[in-house]
Design brief:
Blueprint (H helix, E strand, L loop, with lengths): L1 H26 L2 H40 L7 H30 L5 H17 L1 H15 L8 E4 L2 E8 L3 E5 L5 E5 L6 E3 L5 E10 L4 H16 L10 E8 L3 E10 L4 H18 L5 H5 L1
Antiparallel strand pairs: 1-2, 1-5, 2-3, 3-4, 6-8, 7-8
Protein name: Mechanosensitive ion channel
Organism: Paenibacillus foliorum
Function: May play a role in resistance to osmotic downshock.
Length: 292
């Protein structure tokens, strides 16, 4: 019995010795510690290099957005922050993904299966959510290219109104009668922006054929110039162009004025009212008074 126990003990010691001796030899090998030290240095270098790249990229984005704000067509503050956050997040994801792959490579992990798996997952997501991906990509370019901003009056397809919100997936548009339209960005093919440039108000006044044209033109010039001094929406002095059309019963006189974006309707209404009063005061018969 003692012999059996002694043999078991001897076998156990021998087995432990077989495991322990290679381990001691491994950890006492200078080449192993040198390789581990070099690997640790590489990992630290990769990490801080990634942080540096992200910092430089964020600085470049800030300078780009500041330079864009100095352009004649400026971004509003909300859009500038949106672009900054969006590009910053994309840069962060890309840099962190590359850093993780490089660190895994230092541990001897093959990257080919990981990249292949990521490609398959991305392809599956792309096929499963094509409309969502299209909406997000289109929304990104709408924001980045400054096609329209919150507060602009635009026409998208058959919908016209004020832009209330621009998201990566949908754009919220409010019509002048109060309806709110949610338009997926992927369906936006053409946009007409009425708020980028100054508008032109066209005021056509019809007077009776027998009226004194020169007198009527002088009344128009005096009235519109007087209104120009008080109307803050007019950006340039009105131009009385003269006779626009002649018919058997009336003569149409045209006046144009450059005004602030999307204010042409209110400017036209105000000019029509003031011109009507001026013509009535001088007993110049216009179309409306003639019809009465």
């Amino acid at each position: 019995m003692q012999d059996i126990l002694l043999e078991d003990k001897t076998g156990l010691v021998a087995g432990w010795q077989q495991v322990w001796d290679p381990f001691i030899g491994y950890i006492s090998n200078p080449e192993v510690w040198t390789a581990l030290l070099i690997g640790a240095i590489k990992i630290v270098f990769i990490y801080f290099a990634g942080r540096l790249v992200m910092k430089l990229a964020n600085k470049a984005l800030e300078h780009m957005l500041v330079a864009r704000d100095k352009n004649p067509l400026k971004l509003d503050t909300r859009r500038t922050h949106t672009i900054g956050r969006l590009l910053g997040n994309i840069t962060s994801y890309v840099v962190n993904f590359i850093v993780i792959l490089m660190i895994l490579n230092q541990f001897g992990i093959r990257l080919e299966p990981i990249l292949a798996g990521a490609g398959v997952v991305g392809l599956a997501i792309g096929f499963g959510a094509q409309s969502l991906v299209k909406d997000v990509i289109t929304g990104f370019f709408i924001i980045f290219e400054d096609q329209f901003a919150v507060g602009d009056i635009v026409q998208i397809g058959t919908f016209k109104g004020t832009v209330e919100e621009i998201g990566l997936r949908v754009t919220k548009l409010k019509s002048w009668t109060g309806e709110v339209h949610f338009i997926p960005n992927g369906t936006i093919n053409q946009v007409t922006n009425f708020s980028l440039n100054n508008s032109i108000a066209v005021v056509d006044i019809s007077i009776a054929y027998a009226s004194d044209v020169d007198k009527a033109l002088e009344v128009l010039r005096t009235t519109v110039l007087k209104n120009y001094e008080t109307n803050v929406n007019m950006v340039k002095e009105p131009q009385v162009l003269g006779v626009q059309t002649i018919s058997t019963s009336e003569i149409t006189l045209r006046t144009t004025v450059e005004c602030k974006p999307n204010t042409q309707a209110s400017v036209s209404r105000e000019l029509y009212g003031e011109i009507k009063k001026a013509l009535d005061a001088l007993s110049i018969e216009n179309k409306e008074s003639q019809a009465n």
